[in-house]
Each structure stands twice: as structure tokens, then as C-alpha cells.
Amino acid sequence: MLKRTKIKTLLQSEQTIAQVLVKGWVKTKRDSKDFSFIEINDGSCLKNIQVIANNTLNNYNEIKKLTTGSSVAVTGALVESAGGKQKYEIKADNIEIYGIAPEDYPLQKKGMSDEFLRTIAHLRPRTNKYGAAFRVRSRLSYAIHNFFQERGFVYVHTPIITASDCEGAGEMFQITTLDLKNPPLLPNGEIDYSKDFFGKESRLTVSGQLNGEMYACALGNIYTFGPTFRAENSNTQRHAAEFWMIEPEMAFADIYDNMDLAEDMVRYLVKDIMENCAEDLDLFEKFVDPTLKQTLSNIVDNGFARITYTEAIEIMQKSGHKFEYEPVYGIDMQTEHERFLAEEHFKRPVIVRDYPKEIKAFYMRLNDDGKTVAAMDVLVPRIGELIGGSQREERYDVLVEKIKETGMDIKNYEWYLDSRKYGTVPHAGFGLGFERMMMLVTGIANIRDTIPFPRTPKSVSF
RNA sequence: UCCGACUUAGCUCAGCGGUAGAGCAAUCGGCUGUUAACCGAUUGGUCGUUGGUUCGAAUCCGACAGUCGGAGCCA
């Protein structure tokens, strides 16, 4: 019994093969007088393989009805192509039709807008561009694991469901099994969450960081890589309600170790994709971002600029550039500021560190100046913030004070504080938005086109 | 959530006060080792929803919804 060979393998073949079996979907068909050209794609690579179907095939009348999107199994000889544009083609001995795609098949042979393709997100992976995007996505995931595993980081699965309602990173989705039309109530009229599934209010995680820190303070270096949820009503090209985040955490590390890791990781990932997804990147450069390879090479070759927040403000003030919001010390950086630094001033990724404590999260380590915290953001051209991280506050008393200042309930953070109470160590980590990394390596402008079935406000179809 | 634009055939768009048009797709036919093939014909739309102005609205005004772009939140 002949086994199926992937098209990618056939196209890389050193020689012709007497008999092969390919299975896939019809991309396009052109009929000639006595035979048909059928291009088949099976998702293994960008390229199709051309099949020659002669009218001597016993089911040629059926084969002539094949439409774009139909599925087939083709048996035949892999031969040198008589036509110009491809090395090999298959002379079919037999074509089995699995399923015809009726005339309302929505994918056309010509270009379709990303906006339209989002409305058929279940079929868009069959297009060249989305097929390429999701092959890259797979490779990028693999490369992330490789990067950390090669460095001895332990992969930790942090929980998706959490009861700490204030991780400080945004609005959260509540989850419940209570009957929303008729919830159990306390005497004071409030909802009685002791009757809920977990016995208390629970939500979807906005970050695995606090859990990750606990494992770093045991296993040394760890990373998480999993789904993350934000219930913010964000309507931008770079926000999704459900996305994947990578969060490494290193014990016995400071903010400089953290910056080194972030830079090494981004450059490693870009290099890996350039080496392993070259054909797909060609497509993105041709149809999505003509400067893509130049951008990626720049990242791999040149390294990142590193400045402090204070220096960043000074650079902008002295630049003579007209900002809508004047850069003055103490403000949170606007998108226009981030883009100016990465795109115009440095023309490459830049890491900004040591932000005023007022504009950053409670767990970030207070610097000796008493004014700033050891936070660092990696800003990249076009996308803005790719990575946000910090050295964590390891001093018990300082951390308790910060939690109180923020107005949070210490009781909810006792488990977190235990890591500082029992053998505290300096440690640091960051969060990388996986889809933003996808945007960086593919040039795709909208985050909705980097994730198979995007979840954004007013959109949960599929 | 705020600001702006947009919503007309399956897709991309034109029409901007007198009851709808193109290209592509699809369907049918022709031609050709073709390759986002080519040529011809055909089919296809209560112009986002809902109020209003008007003799008459796809076209003007309002509300709502959705989409896109920018901003905020951040990954």
C-alpha cells in the first residue's frame, strides 16, 4: 500500500519517482483539450504541485468538475515538468475525489482583503498568506521552547484560572457556574460566591508571573508559555482579549541579566525564523512588508540600544521633534514616544529601563535613588512595546509597603510574600507577547491575523 | 472607552436626490503544456438596521449596530 508523501518532500526530491501518492486541496485547475492541469496544496509548504490529469483517466468526467477547494488523492509518477515554472509535476494514474467544493466556496484565486478573510477565519488557513503565517507560528513556538530549553530553563504550566483579582495588569474575565439569572444571595443582597464552583470569585489569568516567580524561587530559571486573557475594551491592531504570552523568570538575576536575556531571545527567534521559514518570509516580504528582511537582519546583526527612562526623555526633548504630548519626566510614555525612539532616533529595537515608580507595577524593585524602579521595556519599530519586564522587589518590608500604598489587600498576597519571607533572592523576568513577536517576524500589521481564531471585543465567532 | 472614516452583487469598488453599475469570482461554451491562463455568453443586489426630511432617498439628517484607522489600557 502506497503511503502519502507530503508535497514539501516531493519538491525537494533529488530525482523523479515512479510512483507517489499525494493528498490535498485543489488550488486551481486549467483544462486543456485532452487533459487538465490541477494544482494541489497540502499545507506542508507554500508551493503547490502540478498534476497532469489525462482524459484517459476512467473518472475524467468527474475530474473535470473539480473546483478550487476540492479535496483529492492523486497517485502517479513524479516527473520532470515539461512546462516552464516548476521542476516537477505528477502524471496522474489515478485521482480519487474526496469532496467537491461547491460553487459558493468563498476563497478566490485572486487577492482577498484581510478584513474579509477574518469573517471566514475557519477557511483562511487555506490561503497562501495564512498558511504561511501559521507555519511560522508553529516554528516560532518551537523556537521559543528551544531557546529556553537550550539554556536550562524549566517550562512551568501556571494556572489559567485564578482567584487573585488584582494582578495589576488589567481587567479580567470572571468565570462562574452560578445561574446568572438567579444567583444565590447573601443577606445583604450581594452574590454569595461561597456557592460558586471554587467557593470564591474566580477569573481568567492576566499573567502567570506571580506563580512563575514562586517556581523560579525553587527551580532557578523557568519560563511559562500559555494563554492569557485581558477583558480590556481595546480596539487596536496590537491587542487581543485572548493571546499567548511567554514569561521567563530568573532567580539570582538583576535587571541587566534580564535585558541580556530579552535581547538574546528576540535575536535568536528572528534568526531561527529567517533560517527555517525562508520561503514563507519571501511571501511576507512580497505581499505584506517590502522592508521585512531588512528589518529582521537589522535586529539580528545590530543589537539593541539601551537607555534609561531619564535619558529617553532627554533625547526626545533635545530632538527638536514635535510631539503631540510633550515628553517631560514623570509621564508614561506614549506610543508616539516609543515609536520615535525605536523608528527614528535609534532605528532599531531599544530597551528603556528605570522608570519612575509611580507609573509602574507594585512588584518592581525600587532603585537606590528611591524614585525609580528596575523596570525595562523592549520597544521595536512599528509595534512599540514587545516586552515588558523588571527586576522584582525581593525585600519583604519594601514589598509590603508597596502593596499597602497601592491599596491592595495584603491577605490576598500572603502566599506571594512567602517567597520573600523564606529565603528571598534577587530575581527578574519579563513578559513577551507571542502574537506581537509574530507581527515582528512576519510583518503582519494586525494581531487578529497572527492568531488562528482571534478574540477581540464583540468578536468570538468560530 | 474616546476621536475619525466606512458599511451598495460572493469579493473589490463606482454611483451622491428621480426606483442600481464595473472589474473579478461563479455558471455555461470555446481555445490553448497551461500556470493569479485567454476569448465569448449568462447569472447575480428589498444599496447595514431603523426613524425622519422630500412628490420621490443608495444618495440629505438622526439613532443604533458592525468594521477599519488613530488614541488610551498593555503583551
Number of domains: 2
Can you tell me the CATH architecture of the largest domain? 2-Layer Sandwich
Report the top-level CATH class of the largest domain: Alpha Beta
Low-confidence stretches: none
How much strand?
A: 15-25%
The CATH topology of the largest domain, please?
Answer: BirA Bifunctional Protein, domain 2
Average pLDDT rating: 93
Keywords, separated by commas or semicolons:
single chain; 462 residues; alpha+beta; OB fold (Dihydrolipoamide Acetyltransferase, E2P); BirA Bifunctional Protein, domain 2; 2 domains; eight-stranded mixed sheet; 31% helix; globular; RNA-binding
List strands and helices in order, with pairings.
Layout: H1 7-11, E1 17-31, E2 35-41, E3 49-54, H2 60-63, E4 71-80, E5 88-99, H3 114-119, H4 128-150, E6 154-155, E7 161-162, E8 174-175, E9 202-204, H5 209-219, E10 221-229, E11 242-251, H6 255-276, H7 278-287, H8 292-302, E12 305-308, H9 309-318, H10 335-345, E13 350-356, E14 372-380, E15 384-391, H11 396-406, H12 414-421, E16 427-433, H13 434-442
Helix pairs in contact: 4-6, 4-7, 6-8
The structure holds one RNA strand of 75 nucleotides.
Structure description:
The chain is an alpha+beta fold and 462 residues long. It folds into two domains: 7-99, OB fold (Dihydrolipoamide Acetyltransferase, E2P) (Beta Barrel), CATH 2.40.50; 126-170 and 206-449, 2-Layer Sandwich (BirA Bifunctional Protein, domain 2), CATH 3.30.930. Helices cover 31% and strands 24% of the residues. The strands form three sheets. An eight-stranded mixed β-sheet has the order 6-10-11-16-15-14-13-12, with helices on both faces. It has a five-stranded mixed beta barrel with strand order 1-2-3-5-4. A hairpin with a 3-residue loop joins strand 14 (372-380) and strand 15 (384-391). Helix 4 (128-150) packs across helix 6, helix 4 (128-150) crosses helix 7 (278-287) and helix 6 packs across helix 8. The longest helix has 23 residues, at 128-150. It is globular, with a radius of gyration of 27 Å. The two termini are 37 Å apart. The protein binds one RNA strand of 75 nucleotides through strand 1, strand 2, helix 3, strand 11 and strand 15.
